[in-house]
Structure formats: C-alpha cells, structure tokens
What we know:
Blueprint: H1 2-19, H2 21-45, H3 57-87, H4 102-115, H5 117-132, H6 140-159, H7 163-184
Amino acid sequence: MIAGVFQDAVGGYVGWVTEHKLLSAAIQFAILGTFGEVLSFWLKTKKIRMPFSWGKFPFKVLAWALLGVFTKYGFTGIVGAVDALFAHGLLPPMLNDGDGGFLRALTISVVMQGFFGPQLMYFHRLEDNLIDRKLNLDGMKMALWTLVWFWIPAQTLTFMLSGEYRIGLAAIWSLVLGLIMGLASPKK
C-alpha cells in the first residue's frame, strides 16, 4: 500500500513537471530557495525570524522563482551544448558514458558551473540588490567558490538523474547550501 502511494506520488510529480516545465521550476525554487535563505539566516543568527521584511517577502519568493526558470533554461541549454561538443569531437569521447553516467554528468556539471554558474550567481545578487535598493557585492567571492566545492559535485549527482527530476533536486540543493552556509558562517 505504501509503495503504491509512493509510486502514485512520484508519477504525479513527474507528470506535473513534464506538463508544466517552467511553472514547476518556478514553484520548486520559490519554495525551497526561499526556505534555504531563511534557514541560513536562522542558523547564522540563532534567531527564528525573517531575514528580510514581510514587505520584501513576495519579491524574494519571485526572485527565487525566476532563478528556477533560468535554471531550467540553463540545464536544457548546457546539456544540449555538451551533447553538441561530444558530437563535434570537441570533448573526449571517453567522458560520454551515456545518460546517467558519472563522467557525462561530471562533464555537464563542470561546463554548467564554468559557463552558466557565475552568470546565475550575479543575476541572483542583482535581484537581491534590486529588492534591497542598494549595490552590494559582499560575499560574491565565496558565492563563486561554491561553484567548485558545492555545485560541481551536487550537480554531477543531479545530471545522473533523468531530466524530470533535475530541477527538483537543484532546488533541494539550494536549500542544502543554505543549511551548509548557515552552519559554517560565523555567528552574529
């Protein structure tokens, strides 16, 4: 019975993300990305309160939703680009161990973080700056380093999954990174 319920839930999820590619990406990132940001703040400050005003809350949710949509486009584009690089002999064939293969997933992840990751990081900072009505680039060096120590390994696992699960896992990774950053950050 429990297995049947689980299978129905997974089937419903797959159907939803397949039918509503951009909306599902936006919703998953809006919920999990925003919660990751809040969780990180709670862990840094040891205070259970919002890290931003309630007036900014809908804008933060919208910012994360946009990141989800851009990530969906980025995933699709980078996978296509890597496939084209393999097809044109511009990447070593040994790295193409097939869909779900570790080496292919690692290759996609490295290309993703090299070409798309920095732009996404700066876009996210632009969103935050617009919401806060200030220019702030503090912490960008650490944010860019997360591309190497966190996002390449995390997205390698992501790209080992079939396409319908990737955005959901990427949204979960944003929550996990918030947790890590909150635990690793000096307490204020």
